[in-house]
Amino acid sequence: MSEQKKTLHITQTGSPIAKNGDQRATLKALGLNKIGRTVDQVDNPSIRGMIFKVKHLVEVVED
């Protein structure tokens, strides 16, 4: 019985220009680097924390 993990579809909607360096680094850690790019990440507290930090630059859809 393998348990399916929830995934999050994260799309970058804003530019990190003129933002703190740690916000740019957070986007890079999520796998985002250009507006319009989308990545799938496993839903866990670590990823949720990173999303919260850059919530004004990303759009999240739960799967």
Q: How many beta-strand segments?
A: 3
Averaged pLDDT, please?
93
Quickly count the helices: 2
Q: Low-confidence parts lasting 5 or more residues at pLDDT below 50? A: none
Give a short account of the largest sheet.
Answer: 3 strands, antiparallel
Q: Can you list the strand order of the major beta sheet? A: 2-1-3
First-last Cα distance: 20 Å
Which sequence of SSEs, written as H and E, runs from N to C?
EHEHE
**What class do helices, strands and sheet pairing give?**
alpha+beta
How much strand content do the residues show?
25-35%
- Shape call: globular
Share in helix: 25-40%
What is the radius of gyration computed over CA atoms, rounded to a whole number of angstroms? 12 Å
